[in-house]
Write a structure and sequence with these properties.
There is one protein chain. The chain is built from twelve helices and 18 strands. The protein is of the alpha+beta class. The protein has three domains: 97 residues, Rossmann fold; 58 residues, ATP-grasp fold, A domain (Dna Ligase, domain 1, 2-Layer Sandwich), CATH 3.30.1490.20; 214 residues, D-amino Acid Aminotransferase, Chain A, domain 1 (2-Layer Sandwich). The strands form four sheets. An eight-stranded antiparallel β-sheet has the order 13-12-9-10-11-14-18-16, sandwiched between helices. It is globular, with a radius of gyration of 21 Å. The protein starts with a strand and ends in an 11-residue tail after the last helix. The structure holds adenosine-5'-triphosphate (ATP) and magnesium ion. The site of adenosine-5'-triphosphate (ATP) has 18 residues, from strand 6 and strand 13.
Length: 410
């Protein structure tokens, strides 16, 4: 059997890739967990012509995806391979390398998966970034200059990322993380946070978008909002992001595909790279960036994976004002299904949904997994978008009362 593309991982947000496969009249092979294979087959049975599944107990491990991906590739001889999220990129890169297919390349993939490798290579290339130290155990590090950020090397979704602001917090982190490690202990970089999503072909960015990111801030930086229109200093910051992105692409030796770069710009204009990853960004960033530019980033990635040059807008500025927003409990709160109706009634909301089972009682979030609901917005002006974002937050809070009888659970 021959397929056009092997999808290593598909998740929820991978639907965009399968929709593009269908639109282009192609055939896909899919590797996912058994429940996801089943769900995606129900929706895309016409384009998924081969599939394999792996044990869902080990899906966070890169290694678990490699054997099944190599096996499925041998069976389906794809002309392209696409990784979905973080644990999938290594398996896809190994398949690409072995079969001579386009992709980010093993160098970029390894670097992408390991923040300590990134710190070392970016440092060697003079790319601006926070000072950081690699330690096996936190108690072996000298007491740092606070605040610092402690993080594992290869996790994602802000899991295990924590700001420590004083000696007491440090003692607690040392005790709590005993036996964990290795960790990076980083200088805390201040400033507005951005991401840059770029499509790369032969090591050159064909397209890049600057997205402003809002989080809950310290200590755990849960992502609340992504706005792809680049913020008030739009054009200037966009071109600075392009230059920074080009340096990172070179340091990673990335060849073809999608890069998701995260950095901050301090009030004095200094940039600091948080990390870069050669994978699909989360938080519906693909959907809102696509809409902002009137393109389909999923299709563009698919074309890159097949070795083709996607058609992309020459100018970098988006023409629609879009956003993805996430709603989390400010205090103890219960997830109620009516929330999505309230969100859908806000002008410009084109998709919304719950992230938890209705009835779940949530504390204020400690990681992205604790968010309660999301909404995607698309409006013609910046002012209209700001108003709609405010209205969506208010609509959600109003329909998600905190049950007082459960308050002692907090
Ligand atoms: N050195 C730092 N200085 C300031 N903030 C930081 C630093 N490192 C991380 N952060 C904050 O923590 C967030 C998560 O960190 P990081 O991106 O390294 O982890 P992650 O698990 O890969 O997260 P994700 O998968 O959500 O991107 C960053 O987006 C940023 O808000
Ligand atoms: Mg990150």
């Amino acid at each position: 059997m021959n397929v056009d593309v092997l999808l290593v991982g598909g998740g929820n947000m991978g639907r965009g890739y399968l929709t593009a496969v269908r639109r282009l009249g192609l055939r896909a092979a899919l590797l996912e967990t058994p429940d996801r294979v089943e769900a995606l087959l129900r929706e895309f049975g016409d384009v998924i012509v081969a599939h394999a599944s792996l044990d869902s107990a080990v899906t966070d491990q890169d290694e678990a995806w490699v054997g099944p991906a190599v096996g499925l590739a041998a069976r389906t001889r794809p002309r392209g391979v696409l990784a979905f999220s973080e644990p999938h990129v290594l398996a896809a890169a190994l398949v690409a390398e072995a079969r001579g297919l386009p992709g980010p390349g093993l160098h970029a993939t390894q670097v992408s998966r390991n923040k300590a490798l990134q710190r070392q290579l970016y440092g060697a290339s003079g790319i601006p970034q926070p000072h950081s130290r690699l330690v096996e155990r936190l108690d072996e590090a000298d007491r740092p200059d606070f605040p610092v950020v402690v993080k594992p090397l290869s996790s994602f979704g802000s899991r295990g990322v924590e700001q420590v602001k004083d000696a007491q917090g440090w003692a607690e982190a040392v005790a709590r993380r005993a036996g964990g490690g290795p960790y990076l202990v980083e200088e805390y970089a201040t400033g507005t946070e951005y991401s840059w999503e770029a499509l790369v072909r032969g090591g050159k960015a064909l397209f890049g978008n600057l997205t402003v990111k809002t989080t809950t801030g310290p200590p755990s930086f849960v992502e609340l909002q992504h706005v792809p229109s680049g913020g008030p200093a739009g054009a200037e910051h966009r071109s600075r992001a392009m230059r920074l992105g080009a340096e990172v692409i070179e340091a990673m030796r990335m060849r073809d595909g999608l890069i998701h770069l995260e950095f901050r710009i301090a009030p004095d204009g200094r940039m600091a790279v948080m990390e870069a990853a050669v994978r699909t960004p989360g938080c519906f960033i693909m959907d809102v960036v696509s809409r902002a530019h009137g393109i389909d980033l999923y299709e563009a990635c698919l074309r890159l994976a097949l070795g083709d040059e996607p058609e992309l807008p020459a100018e970098g500025a988006p023409f629609r004002h879009t956003a993805s927003m996430f709603l989390a409990a400010e205090r103890l709160g219960e997830v109620v299904p009516e929330d999505t109706a309230a969100l859908d009634a806000v002008p410009g909301v084109f998709r919304s949904g719950l992230r938890q089972e209705p009835g779940t009682v949530m504390n204020p979030p400690e990681s992205n997994a604790d968010r309660m609901a999301f909404a995607l917005l698309d409006l013609p002006t910046e002012t209209a978008l700001k108003d709609a974002l405010r209205a969506a937050r208010a609509a959600f809070a109003a329909s998600s009362p905190i049950p007082p009888e459960r308050a002692e659970i907090a």
